[in-house]
Amino acid sequence: MTQSVDRVVLPPAFPDHTQLPESDGTFVNNFQEHPQSLILTDSIGPILQERHPDGQYAIGQDSGIYWRETDPAEKGAEAPDWFYVPNVPPNLEGQIRRSYVLWREHIAPLIALEFASGNGDEERDSLRDSFAARTPLSRTDEGVLTKPGKFWVYEQVMRIPYYGIYQINSGRLEVYRLIDGYYRLLELNERGHFAIAPLGVELGLWQGSYQNQTMLWLRWWDEEGNLLLIGDERAELERLRGEQQREIADRAEQARQAEFQARRAAIPRLLGMGLSAQQVAEALGLSVEEVVEDG
After folding, report:
1. CA 26, 30, 31, 33 torsion-angle sign
2. DSSP-assigned beta bridge partners for residue 205
3. How far is residue 74's CA from residue 25's CA, in Å, rounded to a whole number?
4. Is the dihedral of CA 201, 203, 205, 210 positive or negative?
């Protein structure tokens, strides 16, 4: 008796980062977004290198995070202005990442940041006082799958532990932490910063100039309140330290020379007192030849 075997038809494989769109075709909202991302990435680099000596981490800047399959594909992605994912390779099979595909790597970013050109309502998902205000994943009466707000996606699907919204025009920064499945607004610490405990850093606002723009910037501090420096600042600090060390060395050499000249100037006086060249040399820490030469 022959037993028939039902054929199992497998669904098509999920696409990877090389098969998904790199952009949704929208423009960057303002000229600050790119340098703002750079200053965050540059300054936190030494911290991440210390935490990941194997180099296993990725930073995305206005890059897509794909979290569900849709048609078109980019409708199933969110693109935080800046995000950090721990314990994933920076490249995939030797290729530069074109996006972060959550359904393939399964590790959520630790923190995502949005730089809001407006009042932040879009980044908050029109958040009001109750959790019910957050838009869910749903279908309309016509069966069309609606695109939920990014606040809801970051909180309920990606479950990103920290989410920051920086309103560029007003200089307002909000940071939410995922607690018991929902985002709770964090309070500022005594330095006016938000503590990002898993990274051992703080996030806050810094007034200064960067890439020909003077304004409030998002910056990192360490847990002792020391500003994490960007490359140019680190280089300038090293230059100043080098100058200081050279000045200290020059002063020390000048003092050594002055003290040496003072000892040699004392040679004739001591010899005139009847001391031998050997006695003078021992008293002044000089050689007998130096005493005889100057005597």
Report:
1. negative
2. 218
3. 9
4. positive
